[in-house]
Amino acid sequence: MSRLLFTLLVLTLFNGVFSDVSCPDDWIDCGNGNCVAYLWHCDGDNDCGNLKDEENCDAVEKKKCLSSQFQCTSDGHCVPDTWRCDGEQDCEDHADEHGCDNDTHCHGFKCKDNHCIPSSWKCDGRLDCLDGSDEELCSKDLCSENEFTCSSGTCLDRKRVCDVKKDCSDGSDEGRLCSLKCTNATCSQKCRETPKGPECFCNDGFVLKRRKNVRSLLFLDIDECSTEGSCSQICSNLVGSYKCSCTDGYTLVNNTCQATGPEPILVFSTLYEIRAIFLRSKKYFPVHDAVHKAASVDVDPLESRVYWVEIGNNSAVYSSNIDGSGFSVVLNNGLMVPEDIAVDYITRNLYFTDSGLKQVLVCKIDGSMCHVLHSANIDRPRAIALDPSEGLVYWSDWGDSASGIYRSGMDGSRRFTLISKEIKWPNGIAIDHTTNRLYWSDAKILTIEYITLDGRIRKVLVKNEVYHPYSLAVFEDSLYWSDWNTFSVETSNKFTGHKTSLMVRENGKHIMGIHVYHPVLANTKSNPCWAETCSHMCLMAPLNTFRCACPPGYTLSKNGRTCLIDGNYPMLLVNDDSKIYHIRPEAAGSNAISELPISHVGSIGRLAYDWKSKLFSSRI
């Protein structure tokens, strides 16, 4: 497919034209609701999830799999051993799910369909197994208010109690006291007939409470809003009920707030490719494939451009449009090990961490100049996230001397330690602006947790269901994370951590950074820098203010706006004919090389520099 055609196709998809219909031409219809780009046909990867994209290929030469892999019987494909007996059919002949009755891969509770869930989810009142087997044979106190508990522990619909038909296996849903009618009972709200006689119960939104030393019942209003996740965003408690509502840009659908506008896209990086998938229609497409060790990814929601960092011998920051066009090298000097990147779409700056430099940096979005935001008490900075509405930046550090999550103004002011206890390797962080929470994954403790942005509430959300979590993203009611051990992106409910499911799986390819892209995530806050005259860089600060900043080799003058050359900063002077260039070898940004404002010099032969800041040159 030509690049032009592919560009037009992806843009059309993003506008929602194909959201609810069959796959477009030149795409593979996986037959399971997914569509993948045709260029992935017969590439050896199970992109469809059911190997549909690997059908009608030339016979694959059977090769020897690694010790960490399982070999499919029919076609010889190698899949990670962690995929065996996990309830997902990864081999074409389903060989990876055969003989799993006595399998030890699951260290939690194994559903009847072979899916593995944490042991703590067994008999918790929620259906986590697709077949519901995690709620079978549970203790009798787990039946809902609308259910009757049989003596055997089985739950029965209340409508089937005292109906002159024994529905419980032990017949406990019937009895002679069923004949006592509610007309003889005094209930202030509702009454029902039971095998033990008439029983008072509440209207929806109330709870029954017995008062001590008083022969009467008290009906109390339930505060549904105190139950986490009752509403996606805004919850208003009413007498006997409650009301959910949403912030601007979202629509209420069954008490769930869904983003209005185009379909959300999950963008992620493998080591050698940037890919994306539409979250609702599951259409799956490449963004850019000529990458080398892409560690993280972010999206500028204003210009629909993807930014990513690559690590290795040629560490750099790159960008392209989300359809893969307009590739650009943003920054390729002064970096060592750039770990993560975040786009400030308001003031048009890029924030990133570099564990090699032990710094948190900010650069202009075109990479022309950079400023070191933090270098003191930084060990191994990893993830970074922005809260432009408050002018704050958050980052994680997994170094032994500084393990934790930190916060400061986006200008570097007001540094604060948010978390420093019971945290080891905080790999990924993500901010949910609708609930004012920060989520993070810990690859050492193997948990996903959250903390409210005011630091008051901290909770473990997912445990024993992650193996090496790396990057995080949150959108609507879902939490997404990449896991190195399973080569996948998983998702779960952001309030409960339940309903964990597989989103994307890459055979043998570590999924690195992930990011959800949707216009609703772009805050419409005004830019405090738009009318200011900073000579070099303008950074957002807390309370909707700004601060001018300078790149390395410059100092901010007393007027707070102009950057002056720092004569004490290491530099290299180079001449080219009649021009003299000032090079700061340790600085990031293309402005590390700049021309000195010297005129009428003529052709220069040699240069000499006096420590008293005097420059000497000889003419040819």
UniProtKB/TrEMBL annotation:
Residues 221-258 form the EGF-like domain. The lineage of its organism: Eukaryota, Metazoa, Ecdysozoa, Arthropoda, Chelicerata. Pfam families: EGF_CA, FXa_inhibition, Ldl_recept_a, Ldl_recept_b. The keyword Repeat applies. This is Vitellogenin receptor. Keywords: Disulfide bond, EGF-like domain, Endocytosis, Glycoprotein, Membrane, Receptor, Repeat, Signal, Transmembrane, Transmembrane helix. The gene is yl. Coiled coil: none annotated. Residues 1-19 form the signal peptide. Disulfide bonds join C23-C35, C30-C48, C42-C57, C85-C100, C111-C129, C123-C138, C143-C155, C150-C168, C225-C235. Its main location: membrane. The keyword Methyltransferase does not apply. It is a single-pass type I membrane protein. SUPFAM superfamilies: Growth factor receptor domain, LDL receptor-like module, YWTD domain.
